[in-house]
Backbone:
């Protein structure tokens, strides 16, 4: 590919951004509607234990200050206009502005997810191709049964067993956190040794899907005419497998990569909480446990944005990798 | 395990390949016999699970909450096949009780999700027009929020408990069923027997309920069965995060959650066994549903199902 169709890509991204606006409106509105329907009380949540002993007048003033008496649609609109300006409110559990919480933690979540995803794609492709090469062989059977069992296994359970094995039995990797508990500074070496286990577990949780799809895609491609033609011309097994079967078999997989974002977020939620990884997914769980509405609302919106961006990525990859598809038609 | 693993990815593709079998492709054992073994294994496991869950708690007069501090954290033995937990409760008994709770929550949530999904999908497919467009937009919007996150949000707002868990799982899982039911109805609508019913003067309601819905039911039932493992998985994830069932209720998620402390002290059995109790029913249901799907629609290309 010599040059990318930047114009068409930008137009597709623009169209998707326009489509994302109503979705985000609806999702944030839904978040406020659910909160309004629930027994959740913003005044009690704001005051915490201090609200228990407060007199009625203080509580009423607080209620008025927070705008808790207004209908939820008004509060939603308030929140939305402020959010656009970058003010997402204050998190009660983290004791700092929500925007700051996200800014500090987003890096670590991105690092974790990127490493895990890269490992999953590489290992998944390799194992999938090797399994597809000889369907029914012992390797194929082992890989597919392992993949199905792992797909059925809960991520948090795999994470706990991994801690037991690597941190307790063999004592080769740290059991959690971002750095050693004693150290104040965040150094690259420490982060590197601490990211291995959580990223490995997250990769393992995404792996089965990749292996099974690559195996199926490459297996189908191997039975098709171009591959038979390549074999008939006497090309080497390696060229046939990597140059012909993998290229056409990987196409559907590549396009689905972007649509895996929800699963990645689900996995990150569990992995980050097991390993006390200081990312936004772990913050979501903390926010939920202590009913920190501003943080929870912002993180739900952020996750929706991530999913929509993933869908866009999937469409872009699809349009770019398959010359039969026109970007303008997506 | 091998038998189950071939359930989805192998069969339909294998059948397609059967006609044009390349000479160089070696094949392991006979597919048909492995498929039969797979179905019987899955069915046996499911029957065993259901029997254990239904019969053991009432029949065995043992208290799953019975604490015995002199027997705490014993490794697996003949007396306690799964070992004991940190207050000396028998883990096999706890696991069976936990599976019972998880399975009940899973079945209830899957049923509720199927009812919602079928109703929404049938409305969209049968009414068409702006209703269809609006409903499908709603489905798209719902699917832009990761399921577990939406579930966590709902539970955070309504506080944890059995019913919030069922509701949050149901509210996040009806989307796929709605899509399947809508697509089926749209394809059924173009069949001649529907034209015949309409020209015979049947009302829209009657056509939908008497002619369209029965045709959709097998697909919806299959989706419901496949949703049970999903729902169980969600329940255990929520419970594990402390946002599901209360800790004293034994469910597969709360069992793993409460085993965290003893795991860090080096005892692996309180963690290992509840997890296996999630994996085995999931694989058995997937194996059986794979065979069922093949029956329903042998020509359709198999998909990965978990």
Residues:
């Amino acid at each position: 590919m010599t040059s990318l169709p930047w114009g068409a890509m930008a137009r597709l991204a623009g169209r998707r951004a326009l489509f994302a606006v109503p979705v985000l409106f609806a999702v944030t509105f839904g978040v406020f509607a659910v909160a309004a329907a629930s027994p959740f009380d913003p005044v009690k949540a704001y005051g915490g234990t201090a609200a228990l002993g407060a007199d009625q007048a203080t509580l009423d003033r607080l209620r008025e200050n927070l705008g808790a008496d207004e209908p939820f649609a008004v509060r939603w609109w308030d929140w939305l206009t402020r959010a656009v300006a970058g003010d997402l409110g204050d998190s009660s559990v983290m004791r700092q502005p929500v925007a700051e919480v996200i800014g500090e933690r987003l890096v670590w979540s991105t690092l974790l997810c990127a490493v895990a995803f890269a490992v999953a794609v590489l290992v998944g492709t390799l194992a999938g191709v090797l399994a597809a090469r000889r369907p029914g062989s012992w390797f194929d059977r082992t890989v597919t049964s392992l993949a199905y069992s792992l797909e059925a296994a809960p991520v948090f359970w795999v994470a706990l067993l991994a801690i037991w094995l690597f941190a307790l039995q063999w004592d080769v990797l740290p059991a959690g956190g971002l750095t050693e508990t004693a150290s104040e500074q965040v150094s690259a070496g420490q982060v590197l040794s601490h990211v291995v286990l959580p990223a490995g577990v997250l990769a393992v949780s995404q792996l089965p899907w990749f292996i099974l799809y690559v195996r199926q895609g490459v297996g189908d491609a191997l039975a098709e005419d171009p591959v038979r033609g390549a074999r008939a011309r006497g090309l080497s097994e390696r060229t046939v497998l990597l140059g012909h079967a993998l290229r056409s078999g990987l196409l559907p997989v590549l396009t689905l990569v972007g649509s895996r974002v929800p699963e990645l977020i689900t996995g990150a939620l569990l992995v980050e909480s097991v390993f006390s990884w200081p990312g936004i997914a772990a913050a979501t769980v903390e926010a939920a446990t202590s009913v920190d509405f501003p943080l929870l609302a912002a993180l739900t919106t952020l996750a929706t944005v991530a999913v929509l961006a993933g869908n866009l990525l999937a469409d872009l990859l699809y349009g770019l990798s398959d010359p039969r598809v026109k970007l303008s038609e997506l | 395990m091998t038998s189950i693993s071939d359930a989805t990815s192998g069969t339909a593709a294998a059948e397609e390949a059967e006609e044009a079998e390349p000479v160089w492709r070696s094949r392991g054992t006979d597919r048909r016999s492995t498929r039969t073994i797979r179905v019987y294994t899955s069915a046996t496991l499911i029957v065993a699970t259901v029997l254990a869950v239904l019969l053991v708690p009432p029949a065995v007069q043992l208290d799953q909450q019975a604490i015995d501090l002199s027997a705490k954290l014993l490794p697996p033995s003949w007396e306690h096949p799964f070992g004991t937990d940190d207050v000396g409760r028998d883990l096999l008994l706890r696991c069976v009780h936990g599976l019972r709770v998880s399975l009940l929550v899973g079945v209830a949530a899957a049923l509720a999700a199927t009812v919602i999904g079928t109703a929404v999908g049938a409305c969209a497919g049968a009414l068409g027009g702006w209703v269809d467009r609006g409903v499908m937009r709603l489905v798209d919007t719902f699917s832009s929020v990761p399921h577990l996150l939406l579930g966590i949000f709902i539970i955070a707002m309504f506080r944890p408990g059995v019913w919030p868990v069922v509701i949050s799982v149901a509210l996040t899982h009806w989307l796929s069923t709605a899509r399947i039911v809508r697509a089926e109805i749209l394809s059924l609508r173009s069949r001649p027997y529907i034209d015949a019913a309409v020209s015979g003067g049947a009302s829209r309601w009657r056509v939908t309920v008497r002619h369209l819905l029965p045709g959709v039911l097998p697909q919806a039932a299959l989706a419901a069965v496949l949703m049970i493992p999903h729902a169980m998985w969600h329940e255990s994830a929520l419970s594990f995060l402390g946002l599901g069932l209360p800790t004293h209720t034994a469910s597969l998620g709360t069992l793993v959650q409460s085993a965290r402390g003893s795991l860090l002290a080096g005892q692996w059995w309180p963690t290992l066994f509840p997890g296996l109790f999630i994996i085995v029913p999931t694989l058995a249901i997937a194996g059986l549903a794979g065979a069922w799907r093949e029956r329903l629609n042998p020509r359709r290309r198999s998909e990965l199902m978990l």
About this structure: Chain A touches chain B through 67 residues (CB under 8 Å). Residues 151 and 208 of chain A are 6 Å apart (CA to CA).
